[in-house]
Amino acid sequence: MRRIIRKLILLLIPLIILTGRLCGQEILDRTIALPDTSCDLYGALLMLEQRTGYRFSYNSDLIPSHRQCRLTFSTRTVKDILDDLVDNPSITYKVIGNQIVLYRPDYQSVSRDSLQAAGNSYIFISGRIMDQGTREPVAYANISLAGRNKGTISNNDGKFLLKVISDDLSDSLCISCLGYKAFKAPVMKLSKKDNIIFLYQDYIPIQEVIIRKTEPVFLITSALNHISENYPVRPTRQTAFYRETIQKNNRFVMVSEAILEIYKPAYLPGSELEQVKIDLGRKNIDIRQNDTVTLKMKAGLNTCLVLDVIKSFPDFLNKETLNHFRYSMSDIMILNGDYTYAIDFVQKDQTEPPHYQGRIYIDMNTLAVVGAEFELRPDKIDEAASLLVVRKPTGLNVKPISAAYQVSYLKNNGRYYLNLIRTENAFRIRKEGRLFTNTYTAVSELAVTSTDTLDVQRFRRKELARTDDIFTDLVGGYEPSFWGEHNYIVPDEPLERALLRINKILKKE
Fold this sequence. Notes:
By secondary structure, the protein is of the alpha+beta class. It contains nine helices and 27 strands. Among the domains are: 2-18 and 214-465, no CATH class; 24-96.
């Protein structure tokens, strides 16, 4: 069991390194034969996937997958077959990697006007969260409606956007971040655009802190013993925004984003497996002709499941392997007005790789793990190089620079729910015989935007995303209204510029 857990935590963000430019429009001209049958569009596209080896991505609002189709036995090109199946001349086909994307170039998923016309009037609350003392942005702060499992997080620049329906206008907006006093204000007072919200750092007078037993291993063990009291004991259904980016030096070359629905079983031993389905997704790629190395993240969605450290215990939260680490009390902080222990840890040298170090946050009153930040030890990261890169061509020297992970949970109605997962891996890559080295940075982030606890059912098999595959869903270019009523992480300024730039490139192709 220990080796299985260690392997899971090690393969959090494996990368595939490929050479050459992504291409493949010729697949649309390939001739194939399909059987004479009737089925729905989903089934027909599934048969095409099996014949071609390419996956299909599309928005079900544009192309209803349940529509019935009639296939007549013949040998035709993939494009001709798609034309008959889709039966919509405004739909365009684009091949990206091993995926055929069906989309309408001028399509915008749900605009602000269409939401209001449908009777769902929305208020868009946007702004920037800043540190009152330093005037620096506060990244990854939680923004939510009071007492609701609905919200978003701020980006690296402290910016956020939250969509609030008219029924919730009388509620209050809450903003919280570890180490800061919680902010709360009526929604209507924040209905203007570009609010600047300052958070005050929360200092703890030592005389006010009642220390029970602060031996760190005792606290961690107690936290593990209180899981059933602190986390959901019934299945939940979470909606989340997911983003993957790959950056070459200072240039974004790939951006993949999606709205996910996640079936989360109870936090109990022996619970069933989690499930993920993709509601809406897109991918923008900017691979230039002179780019001879292309990186792809593999199993990014699976990573997000594994990084729920209360479900998939890493070694530093596993009772059987706690003796592989040195723990020390680091600090006492405040989160949402509650005292929180900060416990530092580092893996001992004599243990098996990979070697981790980081910090665990435990609520002082409930003894719930509310978050963790950890990384591969910089002095030991070379030991994990062969496991972080699952495939590379000959003639490339690949050196991992860093591998960092973050997870947090948010309390609501006495239970803690998964809130944020973030990973960041960096590599230096040099071709043999070349003097210059390029730095590639791969980031994935998942922010839970709502949680449903009532009448939660598992997804149907055909709805499921393949979480151990490369995440490649795309349904269009960069449009601010693409996400419709869904909440998402606002792109920070470099990423927003990259999305606009890549979208211009795609429109020219």
